[in-house]
Design brief:
Length: 84
């Protein structure tokens, strides 16, 4: 089963979202799979935090607390044409 998009929490207890995304991207390349959109979800809002997320391979960024209109905008941006 393939998902259409992942909301990745940047701060997780065992493996942080940056490491998880790097590993995800490496596995996608190894398996020759299409790139799955990964959206950072974090309370960290400095420009350097955004940069770190993008460098880890994330595609977009949502700062917490998350607002419904921001989620809707990200979904519309990344899931255009996705089957629901």
């Amino acid at each position: 089963h393939r998902c259409d998009l992942v909301f990745m929490d940047v701060q997780m207890p065992v493996m942080d979202g940056l490491t998880a995304t790097r590993q995800w991207r490496a596995q996608e390349q190894q398996d020759n799979r299409p790139r799955l959109p990964v959206i950072a979800m974090t309370a960290h809002v400095l420009p350097s935090d955004y940069k770190n997320c993008m460098e880890a391979g994330m595609d977009d960024y949502l700062a917490k607390p998350v607002r419904l209109e921001k989620i809707a905008a990200v979904l519309a941006k990344w899931l255009t044409g996705a089957s629901v």
